[in-house]
Amino acid sequence: MKNHEIDFKIYGDDMQFVEVELDPGETVVAEAGSLMMMEDGIQMETIFGSGGENGFMGKLFSAGKRVLTGESLFMTTFTNEANGKKHVSFASPYPGKIIPMNLSLYNHKIICQKDAFLAAAKGVSIGIEFQRKIKAGFFGGEGFIMQKLEGDGMAFVHAGGTIHKKDLSPGEVLRVDTGCLAAMTSSVQYDVEFVKGVRTALFGGEGLFFATLRGPGTIWVQSLPFSRLASRVFAAAPGRGGAKDEGSIAKGIFDIFGGD
Question: Order of strands, edge to edge, in the sheet holding 17-22?
Fold first, then answer.
């Protein structure tokens, strides 16, 4: 399927949203629940898969694969059925950045964390990418089952905290916390490596495994994976970590921000 050519603008700093401009007849596909606002004349439709599959069985198979990544069975399309240009906006689910990716510049394929996809032009295929090595599957954490975005159009990926883009030269190796790997091009070789040294693994405060990335290719690293953010908030929430006055809203907020 030929990708629709969409224009866009990203607003905000740490809690961003992307505004997509649709010409008459153009369509954008998004994760269910990511809509922020849309103008009159845009028609919403709930679909199986990414909308690029042929036949019912193809759509059903695509939807089933999405379940493996923890996503919904359904996605939503937004089509401009008016005569002029219309706009639809999609919001980040938690603090971080929205990364616009023109897939035609990255050999028509990007591999990203399973919950990173936000929206894309119609025609972009959203599937899953299994890591072939067993130890990557058992110990890779967020990196075991990843999403793959294929096509020639624009796709929008969300990642937490600050995003660092790095180009790896052929043979160059970078070790990254498994949760901090946001996305990479398909040419990057990915594996999982055990942290050497028992004391380092048990008392270093980090995970037991690294994602080992070998170039050539491009990677995007996020400074604040959602799993890390959620664990810190949960640990500091009222009733956890020694917070005694559970009935006080002010006390709970004070504790979350480091109070005693």
Answer: 7-11, 17-22, 86-91, 35-38
